[in-house]
Amino acid sequence: MSQNPGKGRDRARAPRTGASLAKAPRANSPRTNAPPRAPQGVGFAARPNPGRIAAYLGLAVLGALVALAGTLVQAAWFPGGLILALAGSAGLFHGGRILTGTQIGALAPAVGWFVAVFVLLSGRPEGDYVFGDELGLVLFMVGGTAVAVMCATTSKVPQSATRNGRSGI
Known about the structure:
Blueprint: H1 8-13, H2 18-23, H3 50-76, H4 78-100, H5 104-121, H6 134-152
Helix pairs in contact: 3-4, 3-5, 4-5, 4-6, 5-6
C-alpha cells in the first residue's frame, strides 16, 4: 500500500478535516446551481413522434382500403363475404393496436374505415350506390363499428407468456 493518505484504502481510513470536506463534492447532493427543468410530457402532452404519426396515417389509409374491399366483398357474396369483410376489418384494427401498442393504433384504421364507408354511402347522382342490399349494409356498419370499439377499448395489449420465461400452461 502507498503511504499517501489521498489514494486507495488509506483515503477511506484517513480522518477528514474541514478542508478536505469542503473540497470533496458529495455524490448524492443535488446541484444548487442547476436550472429548473420542465417535466417531460406524457400521453397527448408528449412531443409528437414523426414515425408514429406516419404509422397512424398509414393505418388510416389501410382502413380506407379495407373498407372499400369490404363493401365490394360483402355485396358480392352475402353471407360469406360479410364475414370475410368483418374479419378483415377486425384483423386491421387489432393489428394496428398490437403494432403501435396504443389505443390510437386501433382508432386510426377505424377512422379511415368510417370515412371510406360514409363516402361510399353517399352514392352517385343517378341514385346508385356501392352497397348491395340493406341488410348487408346494416350488418357491415354495425359489425365494423362494434369491432372497432372492441379493439380500441381493450385495456391492455396481450403479451406472450414465452417472453416472460413462462411456458403458458
